Amino acid sequence: MIWNTKDILLYFQEKKYIDTAVIPLLPLSFGEDAKQEADQAEFIPLVTALLEKQFKGRMMLLPPYTYFSTESDDQKKNRLNEWTVNLKSQGFTHVFLVTSDSFWRLAEDEMASELIWLPSIPMEHMDGKYKQKMIEDQVSQLLKIVVGKWQKN
Amino acid sequence: MSNQRVSRRQFLNYTLTGVGGFMAAGMLMPMVRFAIDPVLTAEAGGDFISTGTSIDELSDVPTRVDFSYEQVDAWYTSEVTNTAWVYLDESQNVIALNPTCKHLGCTVSWEGRESDPNRFFCPCHNGLYEKSGKNVPGTPPTAPLDMYETRVSDDGILQLGQVVPNTIAK
Fold first, then answer.
1. Which residue, of A15, A72, A96, B12, is most buried by count of CB atoms within 10 Å of its CB?
2. Closest to B96 measured CA to CA, from B10, B154, B1, B164
3. Which residues from A are below 8 Å from B126, CB to CB?
4. In this predicted structure, what is the pLDDT of residue B41?
5. Is the Cβ of B103 closer than 8 Å to some Cβ of chain A?
6. Is A55 in contact with B140 (Cβ distance < 8 A)?
7. What is the CA radius of gyration of chain A?
8. Nearest residue to A36 (alpha-carbon basis) of A96, A106, A124
9. Domains plus CATH for chain A?
10. For residues A38 and A75, is the Cβ–Cβ distance under 8 A?
11. pLDDT (tens digit, 9 = 90+) per residue, B31-45?
C-alpha cells in the first residue's frame, strides 16, 4: 500500500494483515555530494515502488524520510528512531529502511529497525528497458530479504 | 484532330465543372475520412496490447510475460509494466492470468514456494491458487485470480486486453 487516500482506507479495514512498513531514506544537500544524492532520490523511489507492487497487501510504503546531510548525526538518528517507535506502536512489527546513503550503514547498530542498504546506481544515461531490468534485479534481491525476515517470526 | 468546334460557352462549362469537382472532392474527402476514422482504428488495435512474446514460446507450464504501455496521470505520463502468467490449456487455448492476489493485491508467482508445486503462491499471507486460478480453500484469498482477454495477432504474437473475471476455475 502507498500513503494515499485509497490505500489508507483499505489499511484501516484490513489492519491485521498489514504488519510491515517501508521507509525510503533520502539525503539532500547543495554541497559537493548533491549530484550523488539526487541520483539516490531517483533510484531509491523506483526500487521501493516496485517492492510495494510485489507486496502490496502486507506492506505500507511511507513517504521518504528526508534530511539535509549536513544535519547533526544525532538529530538524523533520533528523529528516525521516533518514526520507528511510532510505527511499532501502530502494529508494524517489521520496519524496513531502504537507502543508499552510507551514513546509515555506520549507524546500523543503533537503529531499531531493519536497514537495507543498496549501492546507488546513476541512471541518467540508461535507456528505459535497461533501467527496468536493473531495478527488477535489485528488487528481486530485496524480496528475498523481506520474505526471509517475515518467515523468521 | 476532331473538326467539332468547341464554343467558348462549352469550354468554360467543362473547365468550371472539372475544377469545381476537384474542389468539392478536396473538401469532402477529409470529412469522410474523419467520419469513418473510428471504425478504421477499432480494427487496427482496440485495447489489446502486444506482449512481444510469440505463441510458439508458450507451453502448458505457466510462464511469466511482461508487457508495458503508457499511462497518463494528469500531466504525468509514465510507462507501466504489467505481468501475466500465460499457458496453454488441454485444447491449446491461451490462458493468461493476472497475478494480482485477490486478497489484498500482492503479486503471486507460479510455484513461488517449493512446498507447493503446481500452484500459484502469494508470499504476503501464504495464499494459494490452482493452475486454473482457483483459490485454494483455507488460504486467505476468497476469489479466483482474474484473467486477461487474449488474442493472437496474424504473425503469432500474443496480445492481452482487459482484465476480466475468471471463467475457467471450477
1. A96
2. B164
3. none
4. 59
5. yes
6. no
7. 15
8. A124
9. 5-152 (3.40.50)
10. no
11. 998 888 776 654 444
Question: Whole-angstrom Cα distance, residue A120 to residue A44?
Answer: 8
Give dist(CA B96, CA B64) in Å, integer.
10
Contact B109, B84 (CB under 8 A): no
| A93 at B interface, C-beta within 8 A | no
Q: Which residues pair with B95 in a beta bridge?
A: B87
Contacts of A17 in chain B (CB under 8 A): 103-104, 124-125, 140
Amino acid at the residue A40 = Q
Residue B35 burial class via C-beta count within 10 angstroms: exposed 0-12, middle 13-18, buried 19 and up: exposed
CA–CA separation, B83 and A2 (whole Å): 20
- ipTM of the prediction: 0.78
Beta bridge partners of B63: B86
Q: Name the average pLDDT for chain A.
A: 91
Write out pLDDT tens, residues B44-81: 445 788 888 888 888 899 999 988 888 887 788 877 88
In this complex, do A57 and B125 lie within 8 Å of one another by their Cβ atoms?
A: yes
Contact B124 A128 (CB under 8 A): no
